[in-house]
Structures are given as C-alpha cells and as structure tokens.
C-alpha cells in the first residue's frame, strides 16, 4: 500500500533509476521496505524512481505531509523518520539489483543448502534492453514491478547517525581536510574512491593479490596474464530436479587450462557477475545476457543465450585482470559441491573490493602530467559517447533489418512466387496453345522465389544475429564508462583542491602530494582499462564485419545459384 512521505533534504538523481527530490516536497512511497537504504516512490512532479531512505520521513496515516514535524536535523531525527542510512550505501544500479538477483541481501547467505540448486532461474522478471542503452554500470533498467523486487528487509525506526563516513573520522581530526562531496550518493563516494584518494582506506597487513600496470606503445596498459587461457561454452542441456517439477538449462564450460569440463547454470554466471561488480571498481565488466521469464526453454532463446555467453566468456578470459580473479578461476574449475560452497563464501568475504581493490595496483614509475591525463580522459569520454550513439544506431537498423528479413522480405518474395504460379496456371487454360515446357519453367520460377523468401527469413541466423550479439555486448561495456570516468574526475578535483589548500598554507605539502600520488593510481588504472577496451574493440569489430560480409557473399551466391538454375530452364524452349 502506498504511503505518504516528505523529503527532509534535497537529493539530485545521477542516473535513470533515481529521481530528484527537494526539501519539504510531498512524496508517495510505494513500500516502506527499503533496498540497500533506497526507497521507490513518486515525487510531486509525477516522476517515479528511487531516492535514499534516509532523506525522507514517512508521514503517519491521517497526518498531512505539510503538517509533519519540520524540526528534524541531520543529528536529531524524529522517531517517525525512516532511517536506514549506512556509510556504505550503494547505488541499486551498481549493486546488482537491476540484474534481478539480490546477491548481497541474503540470496547467497541464506541459500547455503542450495548452492547447486536454483537460486534464480525460477525468477519471473523480464528484463529487456532499452533502446536508449543500459543503466548505471551496465545494469538493465530496474524492474521494480514484480513481487519480491525488494528483499525481506524491514524499515528500522531509529535516530539517524551523522552523515559523515566512518572511514573519514581519522582525517577529520587533522584539522586541514579536503572537503568531501555533499552528495554522498555519487558513485565517486559510494564506490569508496573518494576515501582512497583522501587516504582513508587503511593499508592491509598483507595483500595477497597484485595487478601490474606497465607502459606500452599507447600508454599505460594492464600487464598480460602470465597464464593465458580460453574457455568454450557449449552443449546447453535441459535438466530437471524434484522429479521433473523444476527444469533448468546447464552449459558445459571447458577451460583450456583445466583438466575437466564443468557444468554451470545461468544462476552461477549471475553470482560471478555480481562478485565482479562488487570488486572491480575501475574495470568495465562485460554484461551478462538478459533474463527472460517466459520461453526460457525455447530453442531460439537458448541458442541466443549461448552465443552471448560465448562472447561474455571470451571477454572475461582475455582481460588481463578479470581472468586472474580467484572467484573466476573457482567458477571455471570447481567440481565438488563442498569445495564450491567454500570457494563461494571465500569470494563473498573478499576484503580487496571497491576502494581496497585499488591497493592491489603496481603502477609504473614514469611521470605523467595530470593535465595530460585529464585531457586524455576527456577525449575518451567524447569518443565513448559517440561510439555508444553509433552502436545504438547500428543495433536499431540491424534489428529492423532482421524484422524485414523474417517478415517483409519473405512475404514479398512469396507474393512474387505466387504471382508467377498464377501466370503458369493461366497459360494452361487453353491446351492447344499451351507450352508445357514454358508453363513448367514459369511455375518453377515461382517456386524458386518462394524458396528465396525462406532463405531471406533464415539468413539473420548467419549474420545479423552475430552482429547484434556483439553490439549488445558493447552497449553494456560502454554504459559502464560514465561512472568509471566520474571516479577519475572526482580524483582530479580532489588533487586541485588539495594543492590550492597547500598553496594557502591550510594543508601540509606532503599530504597534498599523497592525494596526488593516489590520484595517479586511479589515473593509470583508467588509462589501462581504456587501452584494453580499444584493443578488444579493434579485434571484435574486425571479426564482426568480416563475418557479416562473408555471410552476405555466401547468401547472395546461394540466391544467384538458384536463379541461374531456373534461368537455364528457358534456354531450350
């Protein structure tokens, strides 16, 4: 049941899942159950979306929002205020909600006895790609209309803690502190990168994993995986459990560096994907194929998902950092149920995630001017925006062409074939003047064009589907970069602010140098990721275009052969 609410503070939305609210604005709250500290509702302008639970209060029934207590402050909330603020509140789009899989809120921890059973395949959520691209960090748009969109987490009514992050308390005591972003829900803050830049992320006593960045011919690049490998995805097989009550599809994965194949379901891919998003702050993680509620066992859908999982796996194994992730290796190699559960828990307890992941980088000693890095990032930002628009345009055109192949082209050739058949039948109406050979040739011509229509209908499976698969993958990769670039922009801003404070004598120069040094880490990582993206882009689009052109040539050769065979029937009339 919808509830009345009132905004306590201004909040500016940063993505398409969120809506902006203004202080004292009347709100409609769809459910008092929050998701990671976020509520869904409607503002006074009729916009529907998410906003922080800690920024609003629920107005008890019978009380007008305008008559609610207006004396609340950040340090003193009324007892009726919704207060689920957490220093580590994550954007729903970045925490995996958009994938329809509530990984961080108990779906795994409460599912220990079902590690090999269905975590997610029975979901009734349908997620289709938007024409305008995907949400923040690549998730499809939130679908919050289905039962169970929120976890079983009830609102807690308690005084709201101060808005200051705990990880910044130590630096707050130093007196000269670079200011923190007022919007505590920006991706720069909630990713932990702000805390890292300001030196608030504690160093670990022992860092078991390291990822190196080296200087290449085009600038910083990830150091190659010393043990490269590939992995095939094949043999999607329908299986059942509970005496046939529940069905699912398993995929055979065969890594080149492992002795035996493993069998995984989509829910296992989804678990891994959420781990990747949680850990790798500055890396564009490839998106999984979308889910589907109905028709999950139809041959076309299974084939489409397999093709896209193959592309996803290819990008994972080719990435110098993602391919070395322990959780990914566990996913590819574990055969034992008990070992799977142990490895799963170990991955979920990984401390080197988010901001702490940045501590694992070893960067080159070469000097880079931060202004040059900023200019390079701006260039890539403009490029990625243009590429995103172009990929969407090509995807739209290709999808329309598929529709024409399957529908319009087939029908038009069938009509043409039927018209030729009618001519042949008409010529048979006056037998003395009827030429059996000519009638047969014309009738065969009609059947040939009907066959050509069927060839057009089948052709997208050979070329356009593969093109759309690649474009879909890159739509997801490109949609990740605005948030990643925002992290670097935030880091640049902190460097400039700290240097100004140092020049004014309000900060020690060594403290400002530390901020600049940590900004270099983020800058090197982003440039390495940009470099890897370009390398993969060149390979993938070369392969995509070659495959499309080869298949087009073969297709029209087959059409030409059919027409030449028909033409020869007229040679000796």
UniProtKB/TrEMBL annotation:
GO terms for cellular component: cytoplasmic vesicle membrane; cytosol; plasma membrane. A 1,2-diacyl-sn-glycero-3-phospho-(1D-myo-inositol-4,5-bisphosphate) binds at residues 265, 267, 305. The keyword Protein transport applies. Residues 88-116 are annotated as: Disordered. GO terms for molecular function: identical protein binding; phosphatidylinositol binding. Residues 1-61 form the SH3 domain. Residues 229-339 form the PX domain. It is found in: Cytoplasmic vesicle membrane. It comes from the Eukaryota. It is a peripheral membrane protein. Signal peptide: none annotated. Its main location: membrane. Keywords: Cell cycle, Cell division, Cytoplasmic vesicle, Endocytosis, Membrane, Mitosis, Protein transport, SH3 domain, Transport. GO terms for biological process: cleavage furrow formation; endosomal transport; endosome organization; intracellular protein transport; macropinocytosis; mitotic cytokinesis; negative regulation of endocytosis; negative regulation of protein localization to cell surface. The keyword Metal-binding does not apply. PANTHER family: SORTING NEXIN, SORTING NEXIN-33. Belongs to the sorting nexin family. This is Sorting nexin.
């Amino acid at each position: 049941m919808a509830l009345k609410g009132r905004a306590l503070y201004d909040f500016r939305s940063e993505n398409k899942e969120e809506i902006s609210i203004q202080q004292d604005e009347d709100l409609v709250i769809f459910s008092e159950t929050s998701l990671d500290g976020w509520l869904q509702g409607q503002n006074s302008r009729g916009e529907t979306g998410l906003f922080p639970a800690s920024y609003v209060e629920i107005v008890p029934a019978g009380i007008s929002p305008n008559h609610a207590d207006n004396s609340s402050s950040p340090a003193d909330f009324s007892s009726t205020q919704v207060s689920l603020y957490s220093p580590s509140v994550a954007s729903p789009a970045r925490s995996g909600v958009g994938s329809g899989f509530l990984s961080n809120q108990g779906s795994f921890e409460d599912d220990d006895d079902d590690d090999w059973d269905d975590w997610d395949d029975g979901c009734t959520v349908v997620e289709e790609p938007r024409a305008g691209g995907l949400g923040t960090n690549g998730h499809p748009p939130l679908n919050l209309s289905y039962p169970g969109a929120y976890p079983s987490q009830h609102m807690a009514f308690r005084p709201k803690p101060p808005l200051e992050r705990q990880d910044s308390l130590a630096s707050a005591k130093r007196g000269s502190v670079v200011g923190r972003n007022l919007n505590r829900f920006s991706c720069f803050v909630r990713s932990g990168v702000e805390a890292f830049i300001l030196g608030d992320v504690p160093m670990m006593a022992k860092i078991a994993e390291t990822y190196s960045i080296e200087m290449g011919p085009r600038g910083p690049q990830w150091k190659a995986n010393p043990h490269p490998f590939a992995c095939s995805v094949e043999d999607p097989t329908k299986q059942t459990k509970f005496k046939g009550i529940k069905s699912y599809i398993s995929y055979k994965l065969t890594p080149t560096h492992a002795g035996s194949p493993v069998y995984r379901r989509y829910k296992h891919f989804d678990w891994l994907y959420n781990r990747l998003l949680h850990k790798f702050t500055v890396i564009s993680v490839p998106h999984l194929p979308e889910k589907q509620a109905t028709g999950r066992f139809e041959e076309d859908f299974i084939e489409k998902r397999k093709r896209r999982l193959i592309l996803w796996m290819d990008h994972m194994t080719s990435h110098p950092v993602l391919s070395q992730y322990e959780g990914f290796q566990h996913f590819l190699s574990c055969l034992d149920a008990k070992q799977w559960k142990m490895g799963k828990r170990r991955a979920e307890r990984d401390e080197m995630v988010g901001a702490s992941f940045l501590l694992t980088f070893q960067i080159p000693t070469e000097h880079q001017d931060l202004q040059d890095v900023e200019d390079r990032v701006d260039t890539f930002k403009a490029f990625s925006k243009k590429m995103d628009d172009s990929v969407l345009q090509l995807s739209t055109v290709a999808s329309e062409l598929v529709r024409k192949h399957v529908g319009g082209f087939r029908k038009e050739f069938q009509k043409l074939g039927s018209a030729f058949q009618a001519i042949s039948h008409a010529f048979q109406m006056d037998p003395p003047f009827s030429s059996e050979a000519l009638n047969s040739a014309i009738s065969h011509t009609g059947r040939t064009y009907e066959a050509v229509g069927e060839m057009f209908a089948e052709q997208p499976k050979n070329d356009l589907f593969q093109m759309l698969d690649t474009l879909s993958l890159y739509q997801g990769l490109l949609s990740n970069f605005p948030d990643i670039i925002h992290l670097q922009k935030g880091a640049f801003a902190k460097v400039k602010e700290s240097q100004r404070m140092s020049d004014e004598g309000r900060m020690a120069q060594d403290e400002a140098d530390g901020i600049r040094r940590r900004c270099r880490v983020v800058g090197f990582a982003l440039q390495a990721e940009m470099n890897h993206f370009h390398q993969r882009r060149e390979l993938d689009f070369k392969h995509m275009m070659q495959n499309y052109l080869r298949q087009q040539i073969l297709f029209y050769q087959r059409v030409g052969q059919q027409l030449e065979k028909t033409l020869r029937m007229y040679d000796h009339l």
